[in-house]
């Protein structure tokens, strides 16, 4: 019985380890290009709310990082965080607008 449990555990671990992971390049298409980001104040404000509530669940708000990097540098980071934060398309647009408005120009 022990051999069956150990064997099943090894197979399960191998299956999990070999499963495809979400990569920033695969989800980068969901993050708008700089030219497509909204500059509407309401959208930016909504993005700030999402940024400060959903992003800080796992770590501190990285507002200083946002201010020190360009939007182009931050797009892959946004892409990797979108799935973890479980953001809708509308929320992605709002957070992108906030990040773009506060990123290094």
List the helices and strands and how they pair.
Blueprint: H1 2-18, H2 24-27, H3 41-54, H4 63-68, H5 71-85, H6 89-102
Helix pairs in contact: 3-6, 5-6
Q: Can you describe this structure in just a few lines?
A:
The chain is built from 6 helices and no strands. It has about 100 residues and is an all-alpha fold.
Verbal overview:
By secondary structure, this protein is mainly α. It has one domain (23-102). 67% of the residues lie in helices and 0% in strands. The protein has 6 helices and no strands. The protein has helices spanning 2-18, 24-27, 41-54, 63-68, 71-85, 89-102. Helix 5 (71-85) runs antiparallel to helix 6 (89-102). The chain starts with a helix and ends with a helix. The model is unreliable at 23-27 (pLDDT under 50).
The unreliable regions are 23-27
User: Which class of secondary structure composition applies to the elements?
Assistant: mainly alpha
> In one word, what is the shape?
elongated
Distance, first to last CA: 63 Å
Number of H- or I-type helical stretches = 6
* Proportion of helical residues: 55-70%
Number of individual domains:
1
Keywords:
single chain, mainly alpha, 6 helices, 67% helix
